[in-house]
Specification:
Elements (H helix, E strand, L loop, with lengths): L8 H21 L6 H13 L1 H11 L25 H9 L6 E3 L1 E5 L2 H13 L4 E6 L6 H15 L3 E7 L8 H9 L3 E5 L19 E4 L3 E5 L21 E5 L2 H15 L21 E8 L7 H12 L3 E5 L3 E2 L2 H12 L3 E7 L5 H6 L1 H10 L2 E5 L7 E4 L3 E5 L3 E2 H5 L3 E6 L2 H16 L2 E2 L7 H16 L1
Length: 462
């Protein structure tokens, strides 16, 4: 049998060498810092399966779009008398995230139907502009309601822009996108796959979720725009999730974050991530701070904040996430926090909607349980992403506690510093824990342990 394409051993070796050279040039010259397990996985795939590994690396290998800058650390000015922990404010200032601001109001919502009404009310109340970013806009009852509200706004003369992720949008939102465009809504796909496969950015997805109106109010949180996040269906209760509405200067910063993503959606070389000057706040108002993270930031801002929080925590860390696949550094920091007396409570779904994530999380859950953490398994699908540290800081938004959210995706968390907001999120997480069953760590069989390691390695990249 004659193969149409064949290489001699010398030519094959040269091909592997060139592939490894490409990897070194992209990762070292481009300062694409990677977790050791991810680096080993890429090197092994290029060395052992070069004809598959090299194209995959070219398509999925980029992790950062900006080279790291190292501004001199400086204490963040407290906007309007911000009462946030010094360590968090100083760190976030050094990582070039927007400054904290005081707002008119902050309202959390755990009820899906109420959250949908709040989103629709925000759109219906807009008079000048609406910017909406989501990973999923499903062709279902929720997608139809949101799309109809956006079309009505465009009909009133409001400037409406919708940013949809090209991978998340594979879920039947093409028809809705066409209908929105016909109604006068500007729709843009974030990094279309067919236009970016050889630029290394196909794996960089926009997972941010926000709807900002008139620089006045912003709706955000963990919910995608699909029925399962909002509505109970026959035999399928709505997923447990969180969203919130902030009225005040935070909305103007959300618009600017959206503007940055809108400009970079085509995968072109990005502008520097926005480093916004805080708008004038509201004296005595609720304090909050946007914490965007992703390839458009030189540092992994959410991961850095979680690490710092683990070492500064004194009494408690409460966390809820649908997918828990932390890197070694964050897992070690949480285990150390437990061993020095911090009460750590983690709530995850007993069974999530991704079986690979459930397999990949087992090693981390066993390590946390062994360190003394309270790991709770929620009986239903819980999709909320929130972390509370002592009574000083709370985070809520789109980032899961896994490698994809912390190191690959464009994500948006919001930090809350007010006592009322921290208490609300803490009580909600504790309520979910009370309704959950305690995780029982069991030693895995040899085969399961190997499979967990393989799934974890693959899951870190994909």
């Amino acid at each position: 049998m004659h193969w149409p394409f064949s290489l001699s051993p010398l030519e094959h070796g040269a091909f592997v060498f060139v592939g490894l050279l490409v990897y070194v040039m992209v990762t070292r010259i481009g300062k694409q810092h990677r977790h050791p397990s991810a680096a080993i996985a890429w090197v092994m795939s290029i060395a052992l399966l070069p004809y598959l590994g090299i194209p995959l690396f070219l398509a999925f290998g980029t992790r950062k779009l900006l080279r790291a800058r190292r501004p001199a650390p400086a204490r963040a000015p407290a906007a309007g008398g911000t009462a946030g922990p010094d360590w968090a404010l100083t760190l976030l200032a050094a990582l070039d995230v927007p400054q904290p601001v005081r707002n008119v109001s902050i309202d959390f919502c755990a009820d899906g139907e109420v959250a949908l009404r709040e989103l629709l009310a925000l759109v219906d109340g807009a008079r000048e502009r609406i910017d909406l970013c989501t990973y999923v806009l499903a062709d279902d009852a929720v997608g139809a309601q949101v799309s109809a509200a956006l079309a009505r706004a465009a009909g009133r003369g409001v400037q409406v822009r919708v940013l949809l992720d090209a991978i998340g949008g594979l879920r039947a939102s093409r028809r809705l996108a066409s209908a929105l465009r016909a109604a006068g809504v500007q729709v843009r796909w974030f990094m279309p796959v067919v236009r970016n496969p050889v630029r290394g950015r196909t794996n960089l997805r926009n997972h941010r979720k926000l709807a900002a109106a008139d620089g006045r109010c912003v709706w955000s949180g963990g919910r995608n725009l699909a029925a399962e996040y909002f509505l109970d269906l026959p035999g399928r209760p709505a997923w447990r999730d969180l969203s919130f509405v902030v009225c005040g200067p935070l909305a103007a910063q959300a618009h600017e974050t959206f503007e940055h993503d809108w400009a970079d959606a085509r995968g072109k070389p990005p502008r520097a991530a926005p480093t916004m000057i805080a708008p004038s706040g509201v004296d005595g108002g609720a304090c909050a701070q946007l914490v965007p993270s992703g390839p458009d930031h030189a540092d992994d801002t959410v991961h850095a904040l979680l690490l710092a929080a683990a070492y500064h925590a004194r009494t408690r860390i409460l966390a809820v996430t649908p997918y828990f696949i932390p890197d070694d550094a964050l897992l070690a920091a949480w285990c150390i926090a437990c061993r020095r007396g911090v009460q750590l409570t983690l709530v995850v779904p007993a069974r999530s909607n991704h079986w690979m994530a459930d397999w990949a999380r087992e090693r981390a859950l066993r390590a946390l349980a062994a360190a003394g953490a309270q790991v709770m398994l929620c009986p239903g699908m819980i999709h909320a992403k929130a972390v509370v540290v002592d009574r000083a800081l709370a985070l809520c938004g789109s980032a899961n506690l896994d490698g994809r959210s912390l190191f690959v995706n464009f994500e948006l968390m919001t930090a809350f510093y007010g006592a009322e907001e921290i208490a609300w999120l803490a009580e909600w997480i504790e309520a979910q824990a009370r309704q959950s069953a305690a995780y029982e760590a069991r030693a895995p069989s040899w085969g399961r342990d190997v499979l967990e390691g393989i799934v974890r390695s693959v899951g870190f990249q994909l």
